[in-house]
């Protein structure tokens, strides 16, 4: 038990600090469990069982199915209908965002839903003269609330169902079984409704206006002091050199955004363009570097753009967008320098937003993390390539993205079948989901070469890595020990009070580590505690599942929060201010709902 507790402590520290990516942390813990088999009692077969777990396979299949739905453009179509309905009315914008995101997230994995809707909602906000900060956090929260409607709404529910089924097989006396497709939908509807009302009333007042309603990224990122126009005089040593030769040294930290010659503007690619006398170079750099280069090269400062319209006057297509880094992106763990991002996309990065902090210079060597946001300037064709690449979430809608709209009926029918077959006990969820994947290939909704690209492999490795930790908790008696410790609160708390303690504990744990890791750790403990006090174990594991699926208090508690962190311009404390009251409110509503529908007593 001491060894298992030590490994749990290690995993908590690594998850919280992000010293290693969370999927790597999970694999490290899995390997240590097997290496330390004499103490952890985890054989190689049990250590690798996470890869063969129905939960892991089901999540993998659901990620592929979600991609198939995305390829048809149906979610984007719903988003545009939402925008048409909402117009410039702020209450309608918020209601439409919540009303669309929640129900859709009940049937498609909520992470890709948010990735798709970020640009739709950001554009809706700007067109309606609303700060995107007022809509993007509700978008993320609504997706989490919607994920509680069905078992397949979130990977957390699928994993919890598998763990609960396993506990039920090992300890029949607990009365546990895998969750039915709609087993907790009645509670999910109540949770979603209460959360929606909170976001529409209290939440909207607590949300700050971090991003201006006007769609001007230069002003939003306060780049005015980092953009400058300089003229190349006749005696400058830069004349005759290419842009790369003259100013391409990484140590200078200078980006040449435009070259203006006799009124004609040249954008990327500029590296091989030769500099002539009287050329105007539009630079991104800090004032110290600018002054140094002006002195050494004899350049003349002639001001600089103060807004996006001045930076790119008369542009019909956007040439500047925010790009959010999702999990699974090739950029995660890389830096701009090591990833050759600029060269791949003929793009300049003007600013870098990471964990609420904006960096405007010297960001070449910063390690990129999930949720980081890049302010990118690039030609329209490069931006289109970024939109079509699943390594990025571009926070702006482009009209020229091709969707397989003719496949929409097939995709809708397949998802309906995947949901209906387990609901009527015809097939297990894992078989139904895998069958849906095959159906999408056969009907052309997805192409065979898109299967592997559709899977967020870091999520799969995270699940496979943490599942053996839950097994070790059970087999060493660590879960029973922790359960008895929590059960001791029953001496001064009623059973419903202990249930509420589990909800709060899981919510706090999920705020600092992965939601999937928290259910693996907490469900065995909750079941043991319920058994110790003679309570309904199903109610306890359900409380843990709901708490892990609704992590509102920090941006790192849930992936969807990271997706809106940058485009919303939020700070860490914004999530605490808006999310903590909602988490507390839902702790009461959820626990009361569980007690009403399923009872707390055995």
Automatic annotation (TrEMBL):
Bilayer topology: Multi-pass membrane protein
Q: Does the keyword Membrane apply?
A: yes
Tell me which GO cellular component terms the UniProt record holds. Answer: plasma membrane
Any idea where the RCK C-terminal domain is?
A: 215-299, 308-392
Q: Which UniProt keywords apply?
A: Membrane, Repeat, Transmembrane, Transmembrane helix, Transport
Domain of life from the UniProt record:
Archaea
PROSITE patterns recorded for this chain?
Answer: RCK_C
Q: Where in the cell is it found?
A: Membrane
**Where are the membrane-spanning stretches?**
50-70, 135-159, 179-200, 410-443, 455-473, 485-506, 537-558, 578-600
A Pfam family matched in the record: TrkA_C
Kindly list the GO molecular function terms attached to this UniProt entry.
Answer: monoatomic cation transmembrane transporter activity
Gene3D superfamilies, sorted:
Regulator of K+ conductance, C-terminal domain (3.30.70.1450)
Protein name (Swiss-Prot/TrEMBL): SLC13 family permease
Organism of origin is Haloferax marisrubri
Specify the taxonomic lineage.
Archaea, Methanobacteriati, Methanobacteriota, Stenosarchaea group, Halobacteria
């Amino acid at each position: 038990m001491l060894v298992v507790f030590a490994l749990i402590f290690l995993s908590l520290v690594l998850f919280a600090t992000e010293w290693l990516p969370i999927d790597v942390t999970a694999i490290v813990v899995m390997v240590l469990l097997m290496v330390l088999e004499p103490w952890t009692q985890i054989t190689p077969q049990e250590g690798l069982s996470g890869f063969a777990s129905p939960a892991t396979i089901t999540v993998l299949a659901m990620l592929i199915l979600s991609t198939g739905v995305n390829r048809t453009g149906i979610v984007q179509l719903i988003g545009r209908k939402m925008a048409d309905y909402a117009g410039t009315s702020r209450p309608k914008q918020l209601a439409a965002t919540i009303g669309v995101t929640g129900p859709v997230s009940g049937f498609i994995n909520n992470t890709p839903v948010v990735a798709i809707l970020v640009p739709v909602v950001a554009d809706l906000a700007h067109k309606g003269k609303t700060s995107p900060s007022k809509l993007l956090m509700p978008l993320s929260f609504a997706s989490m609330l919607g994920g509680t409607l069905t078992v397949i709404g979130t990977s957390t529910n699928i994993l919890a169902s598998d763990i609960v089924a396993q506990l039920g097989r090992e300890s029949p006396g607990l009365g546990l079984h895998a969750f039915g497709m709609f087993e907790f939908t009645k509670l999910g509807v109540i949770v979603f409704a209460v959360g929606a009302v909170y976001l529409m009333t209290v939440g909207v007042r607590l949300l700050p206006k971090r991003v201006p309603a006007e769609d001007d990224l230069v002003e939003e990122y306060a780049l005015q002091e980092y953009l400058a126009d300089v003229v190349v005089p006749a005696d400058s040593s830069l004349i005759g050199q290419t842009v790369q030769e003259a100013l391409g040294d990484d140590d200078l930290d200078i980006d040449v955004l435009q070259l203006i010659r006799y009124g004609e503007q040249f954008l990327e690619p500029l590296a091989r363009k030769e500099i002539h006398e009287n050329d105007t170079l539009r630079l991104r750099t800090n004032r110290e570097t600018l002054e140094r280069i002006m002195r050494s090269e004899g350049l003349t400062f002639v001001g600089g753009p103060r807004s996006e319209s001045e930076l790119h006057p008369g542009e019909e297509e956007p040439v500047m967008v925010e790009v959010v880094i999702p999990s699974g992106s090739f950029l995660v763990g890389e830096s701009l320098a090591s990833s050759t991002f600029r060269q791949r996309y003929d793009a300049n990065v003007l600013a870098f937003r990471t964990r609420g902090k904006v960096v405007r210079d010297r960001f070449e060597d910063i390690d990129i993390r999930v949720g980081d946001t890049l302010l990118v300037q690039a030609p329209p064709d490069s931006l289109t390539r970024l939109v079509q690449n699943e390594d990025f979430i571009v926070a702006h809608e482009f009209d020229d993205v091709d969707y397989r709209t003719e496949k929409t009926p097939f995709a809708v029918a397949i998802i309906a079948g995947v949901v209906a077959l387990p609901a009527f006990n015809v097939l297990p969820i894992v078989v139904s989901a895998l069958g849906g994947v095959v159906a999408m290939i056969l009907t052309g909704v997805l192409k065979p070469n898109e299967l592997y690209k559709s899977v967020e492999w870091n999520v799969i490795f995270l699940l496979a890595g943490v599942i053996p930790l839950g097994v070790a908790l059970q087999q060493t008696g660590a879960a029973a020990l922790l359960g008895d410790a929590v059960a001791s609160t029953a001496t001064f708390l009623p059973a419903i009070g202990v249930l509420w303690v589990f909800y709060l504990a899981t919510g706090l744990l999920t705020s600092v580590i992965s939601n999937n890791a928290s259910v693996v750790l907490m469900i065995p403990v909750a079941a043991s505690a319920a058994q110790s006090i003679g309570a309904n174990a199903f109610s306890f594991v359900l409380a843990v599942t709901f708490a892990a699926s609704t992590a509102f208090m920090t941006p790192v508690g849930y992936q969807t929060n990271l997706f809106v962190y940058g485009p919303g311009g939020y700070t860490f404390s914004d999530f605490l201010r808006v999310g903590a009251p909602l988490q507390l409110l839902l702790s009461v509503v959820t626990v009361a709902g569980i007690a009403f529908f399923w009872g707390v007593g055995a």
